Amino acid sequence: MPTGLSIHIGLNSVDPAKYDGWDGQLNACENDARDMAAIARANGFGETVILTPDGTVENITTALRDAAGRLTAGDILLFTYSGHGAQVDDTTGDEPDMLDETLVFYDRMFLDDELYSEFRRMSEGVRIVALLDCCNSGSGIESVQDLLTPEALESQFQTRDPAGVEAASRLMPLFKQQQVFARDREFYAGLQRELKNAQDGAGDPDALLISACQDNQLASDGDVNGLFTARLLKVWNDGAFEGGYRSFHRAIQRRMPAIQSPNFYVTGEPAESFLGQKPFTV
Predict the structure, then answer these.
(1) Any idea where the Peptidase C14 caspase domain is (predicted)?
(2) Within 12-161, where are the H helices?
(3) What is the pLDDT of residue 144?
(4) In this structure, what are the phi and psi dihedrals at residue 120, rounded to the nearest 5 degrees?
(5) Rounded CA separation 218/216 (Å)
(6) What angle do CA 272, 276, 278 make, to 5 degrees?
(7) Cα atoms found within 13 Å of the Cα of residue 200, Cβ hemisphere only
(8) pLDDT tens for residues 223-259?
């Protein structure tokens, strides 16, 4: 019988000492992690829940590598993240928009290439599902910096006040992204080079990503759940949903505003039999 392992991360804040005084307060990310863990548990997954102060790079990579050591062909990894998203300069030139997307962990930004590198540790044939409820979480090629005009902000959040947008969305403030990257540029540039060299000639993991929005959009926080997770839970309907991952994505998308359009993205060559399974099937 296949094994299912899941990792659920919810960060309602970050360490201000690591982000030049910014604490990244959010409301609903820990609830998202707990609710996704409940779905995983009900469907036979062994779950690991990592909440705010424990959401460090070391703890999360340890959990991923533990899963890589336990899962074999036919097994499944479910990875969910709720928190801030960001973008930093791509210093290696392998991104069309010259930006790397990041997950904003408690102690530092975690590059999307780092996550893919961890997924590559999984044995061939392991099914990988990632659900990301954060800003900049799709795989588009436009920069969010180009689109956050006052008019766009007002359209999505009914305010032109950047502080109001920060409170309502899961976007690490642009000036803070730039400030932290400038401070730690040497570290991130070295990490990007290391990851690029490691990826040369390496195959992509067979993974499915359903994200809260496109790379050039913002993901809304909420009082109980993030908007994406709230709609996902409604569609899932305590397991009453019938259909595969594509129809699951479309059903969530239909319930979202046009200004926050969840993305469906695959890497490698995941089998159609996997993509056609009912979500969260071990």
Answers:
(1) 17-265
(2) 29-42, 57-70, 112-120, 150-157
(3) 36
(4) -65, -20
(5) 7
(6) 150
(7) 7
(8) 999 999 999 999 999 999 999 999 999 999 999 988 8
Interacting residues of 9 by C-beta distance below 8 A, sequence separation 6+: 33, 50, 51, 55, 60, 80, 81, 82, 83, 105
Question: Is 280's pLDDT higher than 90?
Answer: yes
Q: Does the annotation mark 135 as catalytic?
A: yes
Which residue type is seen at 190? G
Catalytic residue (one of 29, 84, 134, 213): 84
Question: What SS3 class is residue 52?
Answer: helix
Marked catalytic residue, from 29, 134, 135, 213: 135
Q: Which helix (H) or strand (E) holds 80?
A: strand 76-82
Q: What is the pLDDT of residues 151-165, one digit of tens each?
A: 555 555 544 455 555
Is pLDDT above 50 for 218?
Answer: yes
Cα–Cα distance for residue pair 185/151, rounded to 1 Å = 31
Determine which of 17-31, 93-107, 156-170, 202-216 has the lowest per-residue pLDDT on average: 156-170
Q: How is the chain split into domains, by residue range? A: 4-275
In the annotation, is 84 catalytic? yes
DSSP character string of 145-181: GGT--HHHHHHHHS---HHHHHHHB-BPPHHHHHHHH
Task: Judge residue 154's burial from the number of C-beta atoms within 10 Å of its C-beta, 0-12 exposed, 13-18 middle, 19 or more buried.
Answer: middle
Neighbours of 101 (CB within 10 A): 28
pLDDT of residue 80: 98
Query: Which structure tokens are listed for 119?
Result: 């997924």
| Beta-strand relationship, 99-104 and 109-111 | antiparallel
Give the separation between CA 119 and CA 68, rounded to whole angstroms: 8
pLDDT for the residue 113: 87
